[in-house]
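In this supplementary section we document a worked example of the pipeline. Step one takes a protein sequence of length 117 as its only input; no multiple sequence alignment statistics are reported here. Step two produces a three-dimensional model, which step three serialises into structure tokens for compact storage. The input and output of this example are shown verbatim.
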Amino acid sequence: MEQLNTEYHRPWGFYVILSDEADHKVKRIVVKPQKRLSLQLHHKRSEHWYVVSGEAEMTLGEATLPLKPGDTVDIPVETAHRVRNPSNENLVFIEVQTGSYFGEDDIVRMDDDFGRV
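The serialised model returned by step three reads:
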């Protein structure tokens, strides 16, 4: 079980769980410069992202979207998505998950720079 306010490190950066309730989960995600998350989708949750600082290049389905502080994006259930930090500063965004399940095992990776499945 993941704990609130603990940094969970990944090859691309880290995240902190700010809230974990039956009907939602909230994470603060930090992506290191020039890194990106896996191209992924989720079967049981949608996500809403709010960019706090830095810049992002977001893949959402077939679209590529530039994001800057204050921008938001909604990611529907079963929609392929990925974020990349193209800058030399950390990218920070808040992720709000809603749906029926929020476990890390609901990540379906389609492409990953770090060989994760």
